[in-house]
Amino acid sequence: MPKMKSNRSLMKRIKVTGSGKVKYVHAYKGHHAPYKTPKQSRQLRRAGMLDRTDYKRIKYMIVK
Fold first, then answer.
1. What is the number of domains present in the chain?
2. What angle do CA 38, 53, 63 make, to 5 degrees?
3. Residue 32 lies in a domain
4. Mean pLDDT for the stretch of residues 25-45
5. Is residue 3 part of a domain?
6. Structure pTM?
7. Roughly how many angstroms between the first and final C-alpha of the chain, as a whole number?
8. What per-residue confidence (pLDDT) applies to 63?
9. For residue 26, what are the domain limits?
10. Beta strands in 1-64 (DSSP E)
């Protein structure tokens, strides 16, 4: 049986931290940037952490 492959498009967008949490970059950051409030732009700059309820959904896409 061949090896299972990771979903490469997902692997380019996320990073698994040492404690096992999933970190991602926020969307909606570059397009129409002048029309966003400073607060919105500032909050989109920070990395987001994936919620635990989504782990099951992406578990099979990340094959180690």
1. 1
2. 100
3. yes
4. 93
5. no
6. 0.76
7. 16
8. 80
9. 8-58
10. 14-16, 22-24, 48-49
Tokens of 11: 């692997």
Amino acid identity at 20 = G
pLDDT band at 64 (very low <50, low <70, confident <90, very high): low
Structural domain contains residue 16: yes
Asked whether residue 64 is assigned to any structural domain, the reply reads no
DSSP state for residue 60 in the 8-state scheme:
T
How far apart are alpha carbons 38 and 13 in whole angstroms? 24
Three state DSSP letters for the chain: CCCCCCCHHHHCCEEECCCCCEEECCCCCCCCHHHCCHHHHHHHHCCEECCHHHHHHHCCCCCC
CATH code of 28's domain: 4.10.410
Yes or no: say if 45 and 29 are a contact pair by the CB < 8 Å rule: yes
- Hunting for tokens 């996320």 — which residue is that? 14
